[in-house]
């Protein structure tokens, strides 16, 4: 499973029908569409998949659909929240056939470091599945906490959602031979060049969920060391997308689903408290996607005079 955590990872959305139920047929199509681009691993029912809004039954069935749809591609299931619910999600994910877990921080984020050690240790020990830790929001691990968690059997990777490169350098230097390190910042392509320089080659790509051709083109430029091509794609597509994403809280998820709905309204809305983009933001999103397709068709990495408004 460690080998599956390489380069760009696929985080699918969870489509909802008009009556609010999960559309598993469309979820399977969504997964199979992404698998055509050969992602090394799929992370189902995670942040982009709106884990926080899923019931226990919905979570289990989403994981089951992902496992059934992905064949030999490993599926990591998102778990999180209170210890009781997160434990139940982890056990259900293992029973559903998941190959690993991504543990999101619990809802109560005010705790000492020893609390994080105990919380993540309990979850890592409740199944036989390998575990990816995820620090984000108010949850920040210090070096001693990471050392302790590195000794917990099954903990194989660390996903960062904070963006403190000094901390990441310290952790990679200390634990880089024991953990895979993953860039989990929103629109991770924007920072992946810096993370890669630190030794964190793995990253979550929300863009892959709705524009896999763009995500793969950027990944290929990174792998080939083609800095010009990577910068061209950042300037024409990823940076303007990041600017739009930052205008409204929750757009890191809502824009992904909205982009999919532009092609297929059946993906449905995001669940509350997230909100979908305004008509003007939808227009800008469509313009960005159109510009992205034009950028992919261009072989010369010539930077534009200005980013799209």
From TrEMBL:
Binding sites annotated in the UniProt record for pyruvate: 48
Enzyme class at the top of the EC tree: lyase
Residues at the catalytic site: 134 (proton donor/acceptor), 159 (schiff-base intermediate with substrate)
Record flagged with keyword Lyase: yes
Record-linked Pfam families: DHDPS
Superkingdom to which the source organism belongs: Bacteria
GO molecular function: 4-hydroxy-tetrahydrodipicolinate synthase activity; 5-dehydro-4-deoxyglucarate dehydratase activity
Alphabetical UniProt keywords: Lyase
Enzyme Commission designation: 4.2.1.41
Keyword Transmembrane recorded: no
Family note: Belongs to the DapA family.
PANTHER family per record: 5-DEHYDRO-4-DEOXYGLUCARATE DEHYDRATASE 2-RELATED, DIHYDRODIPICOLINATE SYNTHASE
Annotated protein name in UniProt: 5-dehydro-4-deoxyglucarate dehydratase
Organism: Nakamurella flavida
Source organism phylogeny: Bacteria, Bacillati, Actinomycetota, Actinomycetes, Nakamurellales
């Amino acid at each position: 499973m460690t080998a599956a955590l390489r380069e760009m990872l696929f985080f699918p959305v969870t489509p909802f029908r008009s009556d609010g139920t999960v559309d598993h047929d469309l979820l399977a199509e969504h997964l199979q569409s992404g698998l055509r681009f050969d992602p090394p691993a799929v992370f189902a029912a995670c942040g982009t998949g709106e884990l926080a809004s899923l019931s226990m039954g919905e979570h289990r069935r989403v994981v089951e659909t992902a496992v059934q749809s992905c064949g030999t591609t490993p599926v990591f299931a998102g778990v999180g929240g209170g210890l009781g619910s997160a434990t139940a999600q982890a056990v259900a994910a293992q029973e559903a056939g998941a190959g690993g877990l991504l543990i999101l921080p619990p809802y109560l984020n005010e705790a000492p470091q020893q609390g994080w050690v105990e919380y993540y240790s309990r979850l890592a020990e409740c199944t036989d599945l390998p575990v990816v830790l995820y620090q984000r929001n108010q949850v920040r691990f210090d070096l001693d906490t990471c050392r302790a968690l590195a000794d917990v059997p099954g903990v194989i990777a660390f996903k960062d959602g904070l963006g403190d490169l000094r901390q990441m350098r310290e952790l990679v230097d200390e634990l880089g031979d024991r953990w895979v390190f993953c860039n989990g910042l929103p629109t991770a392509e924007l920072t992946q060049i810096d993370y890669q320089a630190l030794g964190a080659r793995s990253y979550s790509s929300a863009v892959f969920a709705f524009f896999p051709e763009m995500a793969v083109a950027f990944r290929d430029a990174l792998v080939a060391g083609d800095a010009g091509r990577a910068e061209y794609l950042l300037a024409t597509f990823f940076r303007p997308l990041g600017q739009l994403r930052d205008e409204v809280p929750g757009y890191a998820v809502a824009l992904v689903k909205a982009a999919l709905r532009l092609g297929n309204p059946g993906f449905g809305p995001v669940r509350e408290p997230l909100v979908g983009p305004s008509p003007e933001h939808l227009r800008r999103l469509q313009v960005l996607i159109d510009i992205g397709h034009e950028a992919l068709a261009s072989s010369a990495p010539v930077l534009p005079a200005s980013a799209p408004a």
